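User: Some background: our group keeps a shared notebook of sequences we're curious about, and every so often someone picks one and asks for a predicted structure to add to the entry. Today it's my turn. The entry only has the sequence so far, pasted here. Could you supply the structure so I can complete it?
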Amino acid sequence: MDTGDTNTALMRMEAEHQRLRRQVRWLGILLVGSLALLLVGELLRWKSALGAPGERPSELRVSRLIIQDEHGRVRGELGLIPGAQEPSLAFYQPQGQRWASLAMATPPGAPPAHQSASLTLHDESGKARVLLGASGRDNGLVLYESEGHPGLALYLDTDSQGLVIRGSDAPRIQLRYTEHDDARLSELIFRDEQRTQAALRGGSGGGALNLYRPDGESAFRTP
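Assistant: Of course. Here's the predicted structure to add to the notebook entry:
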C-alpha cells in the first residue's frame, strides 16, 4: 500500500466518521425532544386534574414527583439523585423495569468538576442499551451489547474524536482523529486482548502502515 492509497483510505474513513457524527447529533435531539414532550404531556394532564385555573396554586415546590398509571404502577419519576442533589428524570415500563432516564451527574471515580448530562435508554429487561452523554469537555454515544458490555462508542473531546468497537473484554478496533495546535493525525488501529495488531496512520507528514507479531514485535512497516 503506497502513501496515496493510505491517504485515500483515511479520507474515506474521516468522511464516514463525519456522517456518523451527524446521525448521532440528530438522534440525540430526537430522543431528548421525545422525552421532553412526554414529560410536558404528563404535567399538563396532572394540572388539568387540579380543577379550574383560579383554584390551582400558582407555584408548586416538591423534591420528588411520581407519575402512576391507572393501576397504581410507577411510570415516571422526577427527583434528585440521592447524595448528589442533582435532578434526574426516569421512565419505567409497566413491569417496573427502567425504560429511559435523563440525569445530571458525575461519572464514577471522576472529580466533581467532570459533571455531565446523560440520557440512557434500556431494553425490555431493564438493561442499559444506549447512553448519550454531553459536557463542556467531551460528548459521546455508547451502544451496549445484550450482556451489558459496551460494544460501540463514538466520542468527541477537546482535541480528538473517534469511534471505538469493543469486544467483551477490550477495545478491538479504533478510528481516531487528533488535532493539536498545527498537528493533525488520523489513525485506524486493530487490537487483540492485549496488544495492537495493526495500525494505519496518516497526517500532514504522510501515511504509514504497521503490522505486529503476536509478541508485539514489528512484522511490517511502511514507509
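Suggested note for the entry: The two ends are 9 Å apart (CA to CA). The CA atoms of residues 169 and 211 lie 22 Å apart.
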